[in-house]
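Need tokens for this chain, all 450 residues.
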Amino acid sequence: MEFFERHQGGERAVLLHVEQRAVDSNEDLSEFRELARSAGAEILVESAVNRQTPDPRLFIGKGKAEELAELVAAHEAELVIVNAQLSPSQERNLERLVKCRVLDRTGLILDIFAQRARSHEGKLQVELAQLNHLATRLVRGWTHLERQRGGSIGLRGPGETQLEMDRRLLGGRIKQLKERIARVRRQRAEGRKGRQQSDVPTVALVGYTNAGKSTLFNALTVTESFAADQLFATLDTTLRRVEMNPQLTVVFADTVGFIRHLPHELVSAFRSTLEETLEADLLLHVVDAASPERDRQIEDVEVVLEEIGAGKMPRLTVMNKIDQLEDGAVRIDRDASDLPARVWVSAKDGRGLDELREALAERLEPSSVTRRLFIPMADGRLYAQLQGEGAVLEEEVDESGWHLQINLPVARWGQLLKKEPTLADMVVDGPEPTPPEPFEEILAARDPRH
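Here are the structure tokens for all 450 residues:
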């Protein structure tokens, strides 16, 4: 049983683009059109409005709302899509006035995700995101909500309104989905644990949607994952193991594309997918170098990475689609430490891919860290683990514990710091960085409802 709504392709739609003068980060009109087309809408006409601040009742002014109703009637539209985030009451009030369904930007993106999900996990995540969104809009469009239901087997009791029953059923489905996604998340964690134990670094491809991530992923891994010139072509994380050279094997992870103002419901629901990004050893930030909006898109991706706790992770930027530039030269830009920072490539025709592989190998070359540790007797398991990995260079023992000098690959040391929270306190030759915040706390801080 599915509670969420989704479009049927080809719905006749009126687009309403809103520019808020009091807001610095308005949505892009061309991207709005592409989102509507990606959802399968047939765009009949566009309308634009400037607002200083949103109207609390209709979001737009009453006069503009009446004009919108006339447009809907004149074009026999079935849907109005608004390029802004509406409150549930604003959405309902607009629907009553224009006499057709109204969808805001968040609902539109959720609908596209519903169409794109292919894997079992992706479908679970999309349904959870849509149900969380629907829970605040449950009264919209229902004609039976004020009917009273008498007591009957399986219902809560006499006098329960249909709305209350719907909310109860919705809550039960959300709980069920969360449990199923938690099981998938545990399976993902087991897979990551196996990769970490084998010391195989993970490179996660991130970037603005339609920047060419999946095309680049296919070129680097010589596979045929789905790639298309459309927004959110890839939702489900795909992992491929590649031997870069005899000394270096890498796992590449192709992740969901980012977009400006990615709805909180999606960030929350796609937690297990985004954790592939958080657990990666290197982020490959893929940029559409030919896009006139590339600087803003880079900034938007950085904002999302910061929001999910990946803002300080090491990254290599890939300036893709140089085949569409006048000066489509392949080159590697280096940072102040002489490490590769940007590589200019064309995933479509293959130019620059050899240079990208060289840059990846240089960034992922196994390097080691040496630390002095004091491990108390109570932590003998950790001591045995370090001994078993051949990491101990020097050792002294007394009644309080072990005084060690160890040497480990950088990646393995980082994995141990994440796995053993007390390890940082055992370092006696300098402070270690504090581990990242738990994902749940990051989401809670981002969500204004908390």
